[in-house]
Design brief:
By secondary structure, the chain is an alpha+beta fold. The protein is built from three helices and eight strands.
Length: 149
């Protein structure tokens, strides 16, 4: 499976890209995880959108936010992989490319995420360390994690 990374600010997203992002986030966060929450949080306009495609199929997605938007540090959020892309390396590629982008866009800095706890080992394998206690967000256990780029 050939993976292609596309990173764009909000203003440069095509209608098709934005729809694919919204569809994937709703499919996983709302339907699959059975979680009712306000996804449109007015942060997408501040973000760089990291999209991993295989052909025209959006396999994985995350948004990168500058320091001060969600946390004091730069952050990666709304990390999501389509069911069909899980186990293919798309998620690992997504995080690695997001971290590389942060380094190129913001320089060497700390990065903070709010990770679902079941993904703790995955993020640790990419250099993140736990940076707080487990907390509930929308009924799902999370923990803040940090790394340095």
């Amino acid at each position: 499976m050939e993976l292609t990374t596309v990173i764009k600010p909000f203003e440069e997203l095509s209608n098709h890209e934005l729809y694919a992002i919204i569809r994937l986030r709703n499919e996983v966060f709302v339907v699959e995880q059975d979680c009712v929450f306000q996804d449109a949080d007015n942060k997408d306009q501040l973000a760089f959108h990291v999209m991993i495609f295989t052909g025209d199929f959006l396999a994985a997605y995350a948004r990168v936010l500058p320091a001060g938007a969600s946390f004091a540090e730069a952050s990666i959020g709304r990390v999501v992989s389509d069911k069909k892309a899980r186990g293919t390396g798309a998620g690992r590629r997504l995080i690695k490319d997001s971290l590389s982008f942060i380094l190129s866009e913001y320089g060497s800095c700390s990065v903070r995420i709010g990770a679902q706890t079941y993904l703790n080992e995955f993020y640790k394998s990419l250099g993140f360390v736990n940076a707080g206690e487990v907390y509930l967000e929308d009924g799902i256990e999370h923990v803040e994690m940090t790394t340095k780029v």
